[in-house]
Design brief:
CATH superfamily: NAD(P)-binding Rossmann-like Domain
Region (Disordered): 1-38
CATH topology: Rossmann fold
Oligomer: single chain
GO molecular function: oxidoreductase activity
Helix content: 40-55%
Order of helices and strands: EEHEHEHEHEHHEHHEHH
Number of helices: 10
Shape: globular
Strand order of the largest sheet: 1-4-3-2-5-6-7-8
Largest sheet: 8 strands, mixed
Pfam families: adh_short (PF00106)
Number of domains: 1
CATH class: Alpha Beta
Domain Ketoreductase: 39-219
Distance between the termini: 16 Å
Radius of gyration: 18 Å
Keywords: Oxidoreductase
Length: 284
């Protein structure tokens, strides 16, 4: 639930921003010696939080050419400099922005081997108080923009017979969270999409990972309109999710919870939904 960012106030309305030419090419040399193909990774939501941590972790590993996308050009450029990556700032809810990003990636670095779809936004409060525009924004960014981008990069992976799509979900999508009804619905949609797409891609060589983080120490909660005030569970650093993403790519894992114990409440909800709802109503 911690991989979102809000539209930067300095930008008057949504727009697609081309990368600065000084930061438009990765500087890190590929590792692994001759015969090792440097792979291309596209990471969205990379301006901060989980997306930024994933970009830095892949850069540290080496062997990756990175294209990073986010809605805040200045923050994105800083992350791109740290990760020796190519930056393409864009609001993926704009018509055609997803195709511009996909085309830019293909033209600049070649076919995508790894897509980490981390762009997201939250909103906290009772559903009856939620503005209409906030409903649209949460669904557009978390669901529609993600599905459109996957649709654009997936054919190249299938044609190559390899690749992986990593979808950053949330515990809210697995168990539902009070005062986050629309965000919970959006992330539940991502989980269902991941399962269905994985069935379709069986035998193609392309994998789908559903990453399910819990409370992550990022600006997400402030930007959603309500800071995180609970003593438990304690927030974990975004670097922990980034390492889980790297491990999932290397080992081909389908679904990963961060931290791992989050599987327990999900299993309780699945096997004893009545008990889970009573506990959730009592303890929140």
């Amino acid at each position: 639930m911690s991989h979102a960012f809000s539209r930067p106030r300095s930008v008057p309305g949504p727009q697609v921003v081309e990368p600065d030419a000084d930061h438009a090419r990765p500087r890190r040399e590929p590792v692994g010696g001759r015969g090792t193909r440097t792979r291309t990774a596209l990471v969205t939501g990379a301006s901060s939080g989980i997306g930024a941590a994933v970009a830095r972790r892949l850069s540290e590993e080496g062997g990756w050419r990175l294209v990073l996308s986010g809605r805040d050009p200045s923050r994105l450029r800083e992350v791109a400099e740290d990760a020796s990556a190519t930056a393409f700032a864009a609001d993926l809810t704009l018509p055609g922005a997803d195709r511009q990003l996909a085309d830019f990636t293909l033209t600049t670095l070649g076919p995508v081997d790894l897509l980490v779809a981390g762009a997201g936004v939250g909103w906290a409060g009772e559903f009856l108080d939620m503005p209409w525009h906030a409903i649209d924004e949460v669904l557009d960014i978390n669901v529609s923009a993600t599905l459109r981008l996957v649709r654009l990069v997936l054919p190249g992976m299938v044609q190559a017979g390899s690749g992986r799509v990593v979808l950053i979900g949330s515990l809210a999508g697995s168990v539902a969270v009070r005062d986050e009804a629309v965000y919970s619905a959006a992330k539940a949609a991502i989980g269902g999409f991941a399962d269905a797409l994985r069935y379709e891609l069986r035998g193609t060589g392309v994998g789908v990972t559903h990453m399910v983080p819990g409370v992550i120490d990022t600006p997400f909660f402030e930007r959603r309109g309500a800071p995180y005030r609970r003593s438990r569970p304690r927030p974990v650093p975004p670097e922990r999710v980034a390492e889980a993403v790297r491990t999932a790519v290397v080992r081909g894992r389908d679904e990963v919870y961060v931290p791992g114990w989050l599987r327990l409440p999900c299993r309780v909800r699945g096997t004893a939904p009545g008990l889970y709802r009573r506990l959730a109503a009592r303890f929140g």
